[in-house]
Amino acid sequence: MPGKLRVTLIKSPISHNPANRGTVRALGLHRIGETVEINDNPATRGMVRAVRFLLRTEEVDGAQTTADKDTAKSESADEAGEATRQTKEKASS
Predict the structure, then answer these.
(1) Which long-range contacts (CB under 8 A, 24 or more apart) does 68-74 make?
(2) How far apart are the first and last CA of the chain?
(3) Are 25 and 53 contained in the same domain?
(4) Shared domain check, 54 and 20
């Protein structure tokens, strides 16, 4: 699965050439301070590089969706409950 990039518009593209403004729009950015997550591939890396002076970028670790995070939380809670139950059984023995 490809990674993700978190891209934030930190400077206005208004005073820049139309190609730069179009690149910012194609990345899905409309307002200063807006953040989007995009797929990390050579095409989007090139777009980000072309307007890097207008953006702040960071790589998203793990690239888990919210459903994956909820599943991971419930699994860890189940494991914690199981460990507590086993500890109580040993103490009562």
Answers:
(1) none
(2) 48
(3) yes
(4) yes
Q: Who has greater pLDDT, 72 or 18?
A: 18
With a cut of 90, say whether residue 92 has pLDDT above it: no
Phi-psi region of 22 (alpha: psi -120 to 50; beta: other; left: phi over 0): alpha
Residue 31 belongs to domain spanning: 1-62
DSSP E strands in the chain: the ranges are 4-9, 35-39, 55-60
Confidence (pTM): 0.64
Same domain assignment for residues 52 and 11: yes
47 and 76 both lie in a single domain: no
Mean pLDDT of 81-90: 67
16 contact partners, CB below 8 Å, separation of at least 6: 54
